[in-house]
Write a structure and sequence with these properties.
By secondary structure, this protein is an all-alpha fold. It contains seven helices and no strands.
């Protein structure tokens, strides 16, 4: 078993902080899209997709929390558009016509959040186990 207790303090601190910063960067991008006019650009870009309308009816669009949930749901469609089209909540025409800056930002936020969360879990089990 690996004993991280004998590692230098800077390495242990770096191992803990990198995943946390990755998650913070991913969430900052989500909050940026959800809290600015980019949210309305996203809603307009995906106006023919039934998934965003269902999410807006379910969660509403008044609070940052509800907007963040909608943005996170759409970011999955930016990573796997075929899944969204196959399940019927994403229109391929909307995906193709979406602004590139929005696609890249949502993809970056998804991967930062996913990689950061996985690294946090691995780091937790490395230090606790």
């Amino acid at each position: 078993m690996i004993d991280p207790g004998s590692w230098p303090t800077m390495i242990r601190l770096t191992l803990l902080l990198i995943p946390a910063f990755m998650v913070l960067i991913g969430m900052a991008i989500v909050w940026l899209v959800a809290g600015t006019r980019m949210f309305f650009v996203m809603c307009e870009a995906f106006k023919n997709s039934p998934g965003i309308d269902e999410d807006r009816k379910l969660w509403g669009a008044l609070t940052l929390k509800s907007r963040s949930l909608i943005v996170c749901g759409i970011s999955v469609g930016m990573i796997w558009p075929a899944l969204g089209v196959r399940q019927g909540w994403l229109s391929m025409a909307d995906y193709m016509a979406a602004p590139v800056f929005l696609k890249r930002g949502l993809q970056l936020s998804f991967w930062c959040n996913t990689a950061g969360t996985v690294l946090l879990v691995v780091t937790y089990y490395l230090f606790v186990s």
